[in-house]
Amino acid sequence: MRGEQGLRRLAAHVRVLVALGRPAVALLFALYAALGLAQAGRAEDRLLFAECVVPVVAFLLCSVCVNDLSDEAIDRVNLPGHWSRPLVTAAAGSRNLVVTAVVSAVVALASAFLLGLRPGLLTVAALALSAGYSLRPVRLADRGAVAALALPACYVALPYLLGLTAAGAAVGPRDLVMLGGLYVGFVGRILLKDFRDVRGDALFGKRTFLVRHGRRATCLFSACCWAIGTCVILAATPRPTPAFVASYGVCLAAVLLILRALANDVGHRREEALIAGAAVIGRGLLVLQLAHLATGQAGWGTGVQALVVGGLLLVTVGQVAGLVRYGPGTGLTTASLGQETAEASPLR
Questions:
Q1: How far apart are CA 131 and CA 135, in angstroms?
Q2: CA 274 and chain centroid, separation
Q3: Spatial contact of 263 and 216, defined as CB atoms under 8 Å apart
Q4: Interval 158-207: pLDDT, tens
Q5: Closest listed residue to residue 160, CA positions, set 51, 29, 255
Q6: Euclidean distance between the first and final Cα of the chain, in Å?
Q7: Is the pLDDT of residue 72 over 80?
Q8: Residue 173: how many CB atoms within 10 A of its CB?
Q9: How many C-beta atoms surround the C-beta of residue 18 within 10 A?
Q10: How far is Cα 199 from Cα 170, in angstroms, rounded to an integer?
Q11: Alpha carbon distance 315, 54 (integer Å)
Q12: DSSP state, 331?
């Protein structure tokens, strides 16, 4: 009997850690770390990739705990009873989250410094920014456009630069241009998370871009960021093939159509579906970039690369079409941007 109770408690703890770990966001962090390694010419180094994932996931856990503790009242309005907020659902208490945050920060720092001095210092800076995002008196989360600009620094810059520096590469101009493109593109994505949270944000005086400027201006600014980010990434990509450039063009056109539809008041369910579709496109762009770099480094021919890129593009477009037409199936699949930048956002 005691053994069964112990197993149930262990299962409950695991569920809480999974909720705090935000699987969709952890995948996003892993993709950016993999891109950093690929940019450094180490796309096939699986061991180094695994070593990079440890500090970024630990950083994610720490950030989530700090933010959930800071935003408990807002989350009770925006996400009442949602599985991704164990503090709101009483699946975990404040003390549990504090302990998890401290342990995760220690693991993040220790594992990052084991990779080298530069990865360690990057993690220190990211943890400081994460704390400033959520905690007073700084609390960047309440500062509108500043929050939308600061948040991608944790999502994009830390895992990408950690992968790049862990590989021992010098950070050159092309690497920084690529980071700039990834960053700007993600700013366009992160703005869309505010649609789901607009009620609680307005109620608690959180001056997000959407609250301050409205739906149409938010979609327009997001579209500009998507377009600029895509063009910058293409400019920084080594030896882009025609198939790769065409795939990015298709994805950009699709997301601009989604944003055009989202600019109108389409209702909550339709809005949710459109945002989920945009998220799949964003993730698909990362996978396409990673595939291009990896196949190029492996010496694959242009024809084979085109087949790989074409297959990945078809999968992405198919997923987007299904989401936009039928909507996310459940709370666990609200997917994409919902989990990556809203429901699963480590920093709201």
A1: 6
A2: 17
A3: yes
A4: 999 999 999 998 899 999 999 999 999 998 988 887 776 666 565 555 66
A5: 29
A6: 41
A7: no
A8: 8
A9: 14
A10: 45
A11: 29
A12: G
Most confident listed range (124-138, 156-170, 323-337): 156-170
Type of residue numbered 232: V
The pTM of the full predicted model, rounded to 2 decimals, is: 0.85
* Structure token pair of residue 325: 């037409």
Euclidean distance between CA atoms 311 and 304, whole angstroms: 11
Assigned token pair, 263: 């600019």
Question: Which of 103, 31, 119 is closest to 64 using CA atoms?
Answer: 103
Separation of alpha carbons 251 and 277, rounded Å: 11
CA dist 288 and 245 (Å) reads 10
pLDDT top residue among 133 and 40: 40
32: nearest Cα among 334, 293, 320? 293
Residue 223 carries which side chain, given as an amino acid letter? A
Contact 141, 197 (CB under 8 A): no
Tokens of 292: 């291009």
Nearest to 129 by CA among 100, 158, 104: 158
Please compute, for residue 195, the number of CA atoms within 13 A of its CA located in the half-sphere on the CB side.
30
Cα gap 56→218, rounded to integer Å: 29
